[in-house]
Design a protein that fits this description.
The chain is α+β, with helices and mostly antiparallel strands. The protein contains three helices and five strands, in the order E-E-H-E-H-H-E-E. A hairpin with a 5-residue loop joins strand 1 and strand 2.
Length: about 110
């Protein structure tokens, strides 16, 4: 199990646990994290699971693949730390991961 903390735009946070093999998006949906809509169900065909990866976790979550970068073009307020939560697989190495939900998804 890995703990993932989702920080909302207003600063409130919710820490959830996720089994390895799930995606960060699936962990968010299973725990009703506000602002992670995931309209495409994790197919990397929308940008409604856009999150910001905490700087300390960028190396462990990796860089977006080309398809993910293309989808991020549809997200609001994309930053260097932007990722699609559906493209980040939960592993034991991500225990403690911190992500921020963008304000524009509300």
């Amino acid at each position: 199990m890995a703990k993932i903390t989702f920080i909302q735009p207003d600063g409130t946070s919710q820490t959830v646990t996720a089994d390895p093999g799930l995606t960060v998006m699936e962990a968010a949906k299973l725990n009703a994290i506000a602002g992670v809509e995931a309209e495409c169900g994790g197919a990397c065909a929308c940008a409604t699971c856009h999150v910001y990866i905490d700087e300390a976790w960028r190396a462990k979550t990796g860089k977006p693949a080309t398809m993910e970068e293309d989808m991020l073009d549809f997200a609001f307020d994309v930053q260097d730390t932007s990722r699609l939560a559906c493209q980040i697989k939960v592993t034991a190495d991500l225990d403690g991961l911190v992500v921020r939900v963008p304000a524009k998804q509300f």
